[in-house]
Amino acid sequence: EKSQCFIKQYGSMDVKSELTGDLLGKLDGRRTRGETIADNGGLNTAYRAYRDYVHGEVETTKYTKEAGEKMFWIRFGQSLCEKDSDARLQFLLTSRYPPNRHRLIGAVQNSVDFAKAFNCPVDSPMNPTKKCVLW
């Protein structure tokens, strides 16, 4: 089943203190499955909408296309940027919502388009060979 890929991917993620770097636990991939699938699907849909808009409405040069692609991903990252206390991270370990850091990393790891925009080498942390795709 395709959702098993998300369970395994997110379930292997360590949650560490943003203050000390100490390991607080591992994400529960089963518990967060619904949210992580929604994050991945939503990101892919948003990227396709962005790409369709840019290609349909705006005359772009190679420079503006490349900069625009990168800005899409940077803005996505900014939308999930936060500093979490250890108490909040401990709470999120028992929640269906993973910490935003893990939501961001997991979703972009599964995106071929992200890796292409930033020239991430194959098998690097942000461009693993195995990607989880539901649709």
Task: Walk me through the structure.
- The chain has 135 residues and is mainly alpha-helical.
- Helices cover 59% and strands 5% of the residues.
- The chain has six helices and two strands.
- Strands 1-2 form a two-stranded antiparallel ribbon.
- A hairpin with a 6-residue loop joins strand 1 (14-16) and strand 2.
- The chain is globular, with a radius of gyration of 16 Å.
What is the gist of this entry?
With 135 residues, this protein is mainly α.
What are the defining features of this structure?
Peptidase_M13_C; mainly alpha; 2 strands; two-stranded antiparallel sheet; 6 helices; Peptidase M13 C-terminal domain-containing protein; 5% strand; globular; 135 residues
Q: What is the topology?
A:
Elements: H1 3-11, E1 14-16, E2 23-26, H2 29-57, H3 62-79, H4 86-92, H5 100-109, H6 112-117
Antiparallel strand pairs: 1-2
Strand content: 5-15%
Q: Give the strand tally.
A: 2
State the secondary-structure class: mainly alpha
Number of helices: 6
Described by the principal axes of the CA atoms, the overall outline is globular
